[in-house]
Amino acid sequence: MLVKQLHKHHPTIPKNSPLYSIYQKVNNKERIGEDEALTLFQSHNILEVGIIANLVNQRFNQNKVYYILNGHINYSNVCAIQCSFCSFSTKRGDHNAYEMSLEDVKNKFTTFNQDEIREIHMVGGLHPDMPFSYYEDMIQTIKTMNPRVTVKAFTAVEIAHFADLFNMSLEDIFEKLGDKGLEALPGGGAEIFSEKIRRKICPTKISGDQWLEVHRIAHRSGIKSNATMLFGHIETYEDRIDHLKRLRDLQDQTHGFLTFIPLTYHPEHNPLRSNRTSVLDELKTVAVSRIFLDNFPHIKAYWVMLGIKVAQLALSFGADDLDGTVKEEKIYHAAGAESPQMLSKSDLIDLITECRKIPVQRDSFYNEIQS
Ligand code: SF4
After folding, report:
1. How far, in Å, CA of 211 to CA of 222, rounded?
2. Is 6's pLDDT higher than 60?
């Protein structure tokens, strides 16, 4: 019923609705401010918020929903710091600590279907003493084995860690890794930019400003990236809006972000909070992000984090991308994500067509792939 109404040809909002002025503004392609974003977050009318989000999404993506045939490699879970929401990291010597050798990376990569795969998403903990050549060699190995695959690797947090550990400038790092074949950065590690919240959930991680600076330099070096926001823990609506505003400001300057990915906090095996936020809050966060980030072409409903059903619903609340096959995700499953470890291409196509949307296979940069 709810989805049906959102799919009505041109659903509108009644003139007496508290959201009508925002609807009109968005309909006129005007940018909304932080106060208006707060009004949207505080609204109990999720359907109307979804209608406004769909206006923006239709403008960018019509009825298309993107997916990619991708795989994950988490090269090590050994991490020099401990964020309180993280269920993945270990210390060296822990019974479950692991470090993949180059040979392990090669073997892992050969488990993916080489005719189909288009992207490797590669991230890990902040390893205390692997040499810089380890990271260069991992990228080069994958690119040599299958040059068609885009390597999207290392969050801003890992890149800042390399800069520290190897005493290199960000520009140097991107030049060296770019020479080996690094083409894009994932959006992880952003969490919530608010310093007050960061002090509580990840006090030893880089600051929000540093995260933004790494992406600024990446964009300047010709490397595109994604952005995330971890929500549903101890942050307020104002914190979420501040996060979105800082991303929107940087995107105005660089135009280097491809997609924004709101990530639901998962509570298992970490000490931060004991329950997951509501589905309504998740949908509203997708929708408000879509409306506020009017300079981001894509909003991703990452099925691993949202779960398949909520990700499908999010396609009616402004999202236009389900991510991909994701073989095989470790980080969020360690925190209790109940989604499967992977989906097939036909699963993704079915999930999208069930929502009356048009499935479009893409590469990492949203070029359409005919299959
Ligand atoms: S979130 Fe990243 S940086 Fe923080 S503890 Fe986990 S692996 Fe380490």
Report:
1. 17
2. no
